[in-house]
Amino acid sequence: MKIVIDNPGMFTTVQDLGRPGHGIDGVSRSGAADPLALRIANRLLGNNENTPALEMTLLGGTFTFPQGATIALTGGRLPALPMYRPFEILPGQTIRTGTLETGARSYLAVRGGIPAKLVAGSASTHVLSGLGGRPLRKGDVLPIGPSASAPKTNPVPNSLTTYNTTLRVTAGPQSSSFPANTFYHAEYLVSPDSNRMGLRLDGPAILSPNPGQMVTEGVPLGAIQIPPHGQPILLFVDQQTTGGYPKIANVITADIPSIGQLRPGDRVRFQLVSNAEAQRLLRRQQSLIETL
Question: Are residues 11 and 149 in the same domain?
Answer without folding.
Answer: yes
